[in-house]
Structure formats: structure tokens, C-alpha cells
Amino acid sequence: DAGITQSPRHKVTETGTPVTLRCHQTENHRYMYWYRQDPGHGLRLIHYSYGVKDTDKGEVSDGYSVSRSKTEDFLLTLESATSSQTSVYFCATIAGSTDTQYFGPGTRLTVL
Amino acid sequence: AQTVTQSQPEMSVQEAETVTLSCTYDTSENNYYLFWYKQPPSRQMILVIRQEAYKQQNATENRFSVNFQKAAKSFSLKISDSQLGDTAMYFCAFIGDDKIIFGKGTRLHILP
User: Fold this and answer.
1) Which residue in A47, A94, B58, B64 has a CA-CA distance of 20 to 30 Å to B49?
2) Cα separation of B25 and B68, whole Å?
């Protein structure tokens, strides 16, 4: 699992509040990704990072921002949470030349 | 745009039977990787098998094997001697251009 942790693992919040999810990895992987998983949609890419302070948008980036100030941490922020952002969020990294992805355990976010 | 399509939303087979899950993809790239992931009820994403596009030989991992048809852009997963523990959601994934694209998944039920 490449030492990937996510925090928190579960969160319930109210519409309009800011939320930050954290992904932490211990393997010094260059690439990190945030996905959301919803029934009928599989995993959809929100944002990804290809190095410290280097990030790019995925297919469902609206309403989300990310930051990567250190190799090991990749933060996903919902500036003003909405009910449509209720989902399970997964972080993933790529192990360099093998291009095998490793996933964190997921964070279940509920926005009321 | 790169896409991954899994045409079977749900399947059921008897224990010990062989089952094949379908996946097609679309890309203009020549070098890429393909993966199958398993997601049991625990939600953890588990790598099942990977295939490098430049390799003609189909990948095999114990009871799991793939049928990779590059020209047809097809990447099916065969599970032999299926077991109850194989019950899970299965995702086909493509990696290219630094991005990982997932299909919407196939829910597989192994019946006793």
C-alpha cells in the first residue's frame, strides 16, 4: 500500500463550511492524485500533482483546490462544501518507473 | 480524450467457474499501462494485475489473467476457479500522460 494514509477517515460537515482532506505518503513518490468515488461513476480524477507545488486539474475539479508544499503531503480543500460533494475520496500515488498506483484507504465525506 | 469503458455493470457466477470481465479503452498514445483493480466491501483498492502496452505477452497472476488486444484496444480480465473472496467491484484503469483513467466498474458476485 506504499504507506499512504488519509485523514480524516470519516467526516460529516454542513453545507457552506470549508473542509480539508489530507493525504500522506512515506515512499517519496512524485505523483499524487485525488479521486472521488460515486455509485455509477467509478473513480473520477479531481486534481493531481507531479511534484512539489506542481498541480493540475482532473475531470471534476470545480469546487476543489489542492496544495502540495511537501513531497509527502497532498491536501484537498473544499472551500465551501455542497451536498453534491458527499462522496468517498481516495488518494493515490504512482511508484515512479513501475507506474503502479497505490491507494489510500479512502475518506467518507458527508455534507448535510 | 482518453476513455475506459466497462460494459458489464454487474455479473454473477457460481463458485469454481471461470468469468471474464470486459474492458475497452481509447487513446492515441502508444506507450501506456493498463490495470485491473479489485475493491471489496472494505473499500480498499487492491491491484489485481497490470499490463504494459509494449508487451505482447498477456499478464498472468495466479488465477487472474488478461487478454490484451492492443489493436482492438481491449483488455479483459479472466478469473479462473472463482472463489467467494473474489466477490467485489472490479475496475479497469489506464495510465497515460500522467493521468489515471478508470472505468465505471463491474460488480462481480461469486455465488456458493
Assistant:
1) A47
2) 11
